[in-house]
Protein backbone atom coordinates (compact mmCIF):
# COMPACT_ATOMS: atom_id res chain seq x y z
CA UNK A 1 0.00 0.00 0.00
CA UNK A 2 2.79 2.42 0.86
CA UNK A 3 1.50 5.99 0.79
CA UNK A 4 -1.09 5.32 -1.93
CA UNK A 5 -4.33 6.88 -0.61
CA UNK A 6 -6.63 4.80 -2.84
CA UNK A 7 -4.89 1.55 -1.95
CA UNK A 8 -5.09 2.48 1.74
CA UNK A 9 -8.84 3.03 1.47
CA UNK A 10 -9.27 -0.32 -0.33
CA UNK A 11 -7.27 -2.21 2.30
CA UNK A 12 -9.17 -0.46 5.11
CA UNK A 13 -12.51 -1.38 3.53
CA UNK A 14 -11.38 -4.98 3.09
CA UNK A 15 -10.30 -5.18 6.74
CA UNK A 16 -13.75 -3.96 7.83
CA UNK A 17 -15.46 -6.43 5.49
CA UNK A 18 -13.45 -9.22 7.09
CA UNK A 19 -14.45 -8.26 10.61
CA UNK A 20 -12.13 -5.52 11.84
CA UNK A 21 -14.00 -3.49 14.45
CA UNK A 22 -12.27 -0.29 13.35
CA UNK A 23 -9.46 0.71 11.03
CA UNK A 24 -7.16 3.72 10.94
CA UNK A 25 -5.01 4.27 7.89
CA UNK A 26 -3.03 7.35 7.04
CA UNK A 27 -0.27 8.04 4.55
CA UNK A 28 2.91 9.21 6.26
CA UNK A 29 6.58 9.49 5.48
CA UNK A 30 8.05 7.79 8.54
CA UNK A 31 11.39 9.48 8.00
CA UNK A 32 9.76 12.85 8.79
CA UNK A 33 9.18 13.33 12.54
CA UNK A 34 6.21 15.70 12.17
CA UNK A 35 4.39 13.18 9.97
CA UNK A 36 5.09 10.40 12.48
CA UNK A 37 3.80 12.58 15.33
CA UNK A 38 0.61 13.34 13.39
CA UNK A 39 0.18 9.63 12.63
CA UNK A 40 0.59 8.55 16.27
CA UNK A 41 -1.67 11.38 17.46
CA UNK A 42 -4.33 10.21 15.00
CA UNK A 43 -4.10 6.68 16.39
CA UNK A 44 -4.33 7.83 20.00
CA UNK A 45 -7.20 10.21 19.22
CA UNK A 46 -9.10 7.32 17.63
CA UNK A 47 -8.17 4.40 19.89
CA UNK A 48 -6.81 6.00 23.06
CA UNK A 49 -3.42 4.29 22.96
CA UNK A 50 -0.94 2.35 20.87
CA UNK A 51 -1.04 -1.34 21.76
CA UNK A 52 1.20 -2.65 18.99
CA UNK A 53 3.63 -0.80 16.73
CA UNK A 54 4.72 -2.58 13.55
CA UNK A 55 7.57 -1.00 11.63
CA UNK A 56 7.39 -2.23 8.07
CA UNK A 57 9.56 0.13 6.07
CA UNK A 58 12.22 -0.80 3.62
CA UNK A 59 11.28 0.21 0.14
CA UNK A 60 11.53 -1.95 -2.90
CA UNK A 61 15.04 -3.28 -3.05
CA UNK A 62 16.72 -6.60 -3.59
CA UNK A 63 17.96 -8.35 -0.48
CA UNK A 64 21.61 -9.30 -0.66
CA UNK A 65 23.98 -10.88 1.83
CA UNK A 66 25.71 -8.33 4.06
CA UNK A 67 29.13 -9.07 2.60
CA UNK A 68 27.75 -8.26 -0.87
CA UNK A 69 26.09 -5.04 0.26
CA UNK A 70 27.08 -1.60 -1.00
CA UNK A 71 26.84 1.91 0.42
CA UNK A 72 23.60 2.33 -1.52
CA UNK A 73 21.99 -0.80 -0.08
CA UNK A 74 23.35 0.16 3.34
CA UNK A 75 21.59 3.52 3.03
CA UNK A 76 18.28 1.71 2.50
CA UNK A 77 18.92 -0.30 5.67
CA UNK A 78 19.72 2.93 7.48
CA UNK A 79 16.35 4.40 6.42
CA UNK A 80 14.59 1.30 7.75
CA UNK A 81 16.31 1.41 11.12
CA UNK A 82 16.11 5.18 11.57
CA UNK A 83 12.40 5.25 10.69
CA UNK A 84 11.71 2.38 13.12
CA UNK A 85 13.59 4.30 15.83
CA UNK A 86 11.66 7.48 15.03
CA UNK A 87 8.27 5.73 15.19
CA UNK A 88 9.04 3.89 18.42
CA UNK A 89 10.50 6.98 20.13
CA UNK A 90 7.56 9.22 19.20
CA UNK A 91 4.99 6.56 20.08
CA UNK A 92 6.60 6.14 23.51
CA UNK A 93 6.87 9.89 24.05
CA UNK A 94 3.23 10.53 23.13
CA UNK A 95 1.69 7.52 24.87
CA UNK A 96 3.90 6.54 27.81
Structure notes:
- With 96 residues, this protein is mostly helical.
- Helix content is 55%, strand content 0%.
- The protein contains 3 helices and no strands.
- α2 packs across α3.
- It is globular, with a radius of gyration of 15 Å.
- The protein starts with a helix and ends with a helix.
- The mean pLDDT is 84.
Give a nutshell description of this structure.
This protein has 96 residues and is mainly α.
Blueprint of the fold:
Elements: H1 5-17, H2 33-47, H3 71-95
For this structure, the quaternary state is single chain
Spans of at least 5 consecutive residues with low confidence: none
Look at the structure and give the mean pLDDT: 84
Residues in helix, %: 55-70%
Separate helix tally: 3
- First CA to last CA: what distance? 29 Å
Compute the number of strand runs: 0
The whole-angstrom Rg is: 15 Å
In sequence order, what are the helices and strands, one letter per element?
HHH
* Derived structural class: mainly alpha
Features:
96 residues, mainly alpha
Amino acid sequence: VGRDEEAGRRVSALARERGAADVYWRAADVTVETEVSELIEGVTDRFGQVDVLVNNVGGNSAITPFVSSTLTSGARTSISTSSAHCCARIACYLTC
